[in-house]
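Intended use. Records like the one below are meant for learning the mapping from a protein sequence to its folded structure. Do not use them to infer anything beyond what is encoded.
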Amino acid sequence: MASISPDIDTNFIPDLPMGPLNEYRKKAKFNWKRLMLILDEEASVKIKYRVWKLLENDPLFSKAKYTLSTDELKRLAAMQVNKLTELDIIPKDVINYSYRDRTKFLMSTDEALYSYSSDLSVKIALGVSLFVNSLSAMGTERHKKYYNAAWNREIVACFAITEVAHGSNTKNIRTTATYDPITQEFIINTPDFEAAKCWIGNLGKTATICLTFANLYTADGINHGLHGFVVPIRNPKTLMAYPGVIVGDMGEKIGLNGVDNGFMMFSNYRIPRENLLNRIADVTPEGSYETVLMEPSRALGAALETLSVARLGIIQESVNNLSSATVIAVRYAALRKQFGHERNGPEVPIIEYQLHQWRIFPYLAAACVLRVFAVQISGTYLKTVEDCQSESNAFEVFSQLVGEFHAIISSSKPLLTWTARDAIQESREACGGHGYLKISNLGELRNNHDASVTYEGDNNVLQQQASNWLIKQWDDKIESPLGTANFLKNRTDILRRKFEDIIKVTPVESMEFPIECFEWLICYLLDKTASKIRNFVSNGAHRFDAKNNSQVYTARDICRAYPQYVALCSFRTRFHKPDVTPELKEVLQLIYLIYSYWIIDQHMTSFCQGAFAKNPTKFVDLIRSKLLEKCGEFKNSAVSVADSIAPPDFALNSAIAKSDGLLYQNLQHELMTNPNAFSRPSWWRDILLPDPPSLKSKL
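Structure written out for the chain above:
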């Protein structure tokens, strides 16, 4: 293992135990700790290790030896949330940090919690991070008491937009808040069950207060659109719902059963006028509606922009799931031996097989590339929001950047969640039967991750929203303040280029080659999509139908290629920073190329259909042979790369992928100490035959 430069402090990262995995670890030409600080930020890594250590040392966070009931899971998660306050997991002085530093602290803490327990992480993310960030973005000084109470965990908060019949289409949400100037109160009503708030995390059993979105009506009957309100829903001393609120739990789910998702209906429920979140709009005591926005129709978009932070959180959580799954698969592959060159000779670790490398190494590379991307886009977004907040017309200034941020985040959330989903399943299969055991943790990862493909925006709907911005850039003047679409200005030259032209000046193994391939691909797909829409419209179709019927094979593909392109650019930028030493450059370029060739191969149909190469067979063969070649070169680095993105064993919680590499000893311990391994079932009498024959041995 390569030495570390003396000016780089990695002492806070615990050493890994010696064991069978060292056979591959010693083959790596880089230091895994140093790589960890390239793929992530040092401050974030320190926060995570602090959280993991605090959790590991507290008995309440010990992993259960048996499957808990749904009610037990909710009770445990709620108790752990309370314990976090006692452990000072989120120090109270963090509230005084700048917006960017505070949010980054929360996101890093959430990542550490998520690695340990997705239930606990989601409850904290909803009840603290999302709630306080939303109050900060949409509220004013008069809501500071709720902000402080949520931060100090004195209240259990939740965030309610979704209704039974409407989720993604927020404009058609039907909960109402009608102002009564006589009492200076808002009267909240749910017209019918289809308008009941639902899927609200923390609401089912524990939340005492809710940030609720409802259509604001003034006394003159005018609907001013969706606005946020702080709504008390339960007595914090009894957890009984207040009169006028019907609140219930949604029951058992596929996963995340420690999160008490709930539904809620209001019947003439009154709250004070001051509970309206009034940063962008307010109602005077007399009942007049006032807004700071020049275009009131933009109020909803400004109010809901806070969800971008939530989606960034999902992106980071997905990177964690992607990382955990691939760490399990890679470590297991380095330890599990099957077959060999000689009939009775030594067996070979399955990591040596090309097919196995092709199955799992691209996901390991994706975990690294997408982690760098997640760190970069989160940092850029938070800095931009903080800079805009210093402006007197913050919402007006930020609105100039919202379109591009929304396109990046709305396309990246599907990319990350789907990549993690597929990685978990491939890893489960790559670990064979042992991967099917609950103690592998792959099943828990799969079930708990599954919710992310639909919450905070259904992936396919988000992709359509992102494609709208991209098509607008193609049809209108390019407006890309973040620079992710600036290459479209050269669309004519880009589309004229062929694969054969590119490789004359750009080596296939350079970092620029995949970038140029993806610029061509995005231009081709945008041109094809825009033309398809224009043809529909010119033939009399409504633009809604034209766009709707241009998703499959065109717009949807753009929204997979676009975030992949942005991720490649982010990784390339990180690669060229001065702290990346030569030995790290070597492995980072290998990671980059494996991911690049893999995702180019994913789009091979479009490359061939668009005639990117004069000789498409040569292009296909080259990309696939290079992918296999680089996977082979990656074999000796894979275990150490996995170490650089792995949480501690306590958080990874996989009996088949502990860092000590003692695969079969750890498996034996888990099987032998299973509480029900050797006990006779309590129902043994129910399965006895009337007069079973004696089978006792005469020996």
